[in-house]
Amino acid sequence: MLPQQLVYISTSGVYGDCGGALIDENHPVNPQSDRAIRRVDAEGQLRGWGQRNRVNVSILRVPGIYADDRLPLARLREGVAALIPDEDSYTNHIHADDLADSTVAALKYGKPGRVYHICDDSDLKMGEYFDLIADHFGLPHPPRIPRAEAQGRISPGMLSFMRESRRLTNTRMKNELHLNLHYPTVSDALALIPASHSESR
Fold it and tell me: What was the pLDDT predicted at 53?
């Protein structure tokens, strides 16, 4: 027996680098990493499968997931560098609890073959995200370096994220999935986490 609904959690990485532009779900995909290429393929396969089998497939394109136990505290303690503001990349975020709620909402309200950005209302560059967390937990800000220096000082995995800059709209998520975020911004979530929490991480 086939399901009536299926929700696939994909990645916002399918868009590749957008130069910091604000993009909606109609923006063309341009995957620039192996993992993003695989996600684009999976999205297409599932859409086709859903059409052939009359299964309502919704696709959630998800950015960086965070929670009280998914914060870059070790990175901050180690003093791993971030990019200087003028060369930094925009990042997008969603709290794990809001992501969980979005999957339930997509099962209930998602339209066949429809793509939804699942992200909060934050408007942050990567270094600003690290600084917010550092300030909340009383940790030093990461040192800032030019992009040209990052190659030898930052892991290849993190460098791949730093090469891509985009800002996601979430209007469709709010209007069609009727999702009210518990944590509209990263700052809202941090306000509910005791500063002493970092001592146990």
Answer: 97
Parallel, antiparallel or unpaired: strands 5-11 and 56-62 = parallel
Whole-number pLDDT of residue 43: 98
Grouped pLDDT means (10 residues each) for the chain, 201 residues: 96 98 98 96 98 97 97 96 96 99 98 97 98 98 94 83 96 98 98 77 56
pLDDT at 199: 57
Q: Which CATH class is domain 5-200?
A: alpha beta
Domain residue extents for the chain? 5-200
Q: What is the widest separation between alpha-carbon atoms in the chain?
A: 55
Q: Which two tokens stand for residue 155?
A: 């892991």
Using CB atoms within 10 A of its CB, is residue 93 exposed (0-12), middle (13-18) or buried (19+)? buried
Q: Are strands 167-168 and 115-117 parallel, antiparallel or unpaired?
A: unpaired
- Nearest of 89, 106, 125, 141 to residue 10 by alpha carbon: 106
> Mapping DSSP to helix (H, G, I), strand (E, B) and coil, where does residue 118 land?
coil
Residues 127 and 141: their CA atoms lie apart, in Å, by 9
- Classified as helix, coil or strand, 92 is coil
How far is residue 99 CA from its own chain's centroid?
10
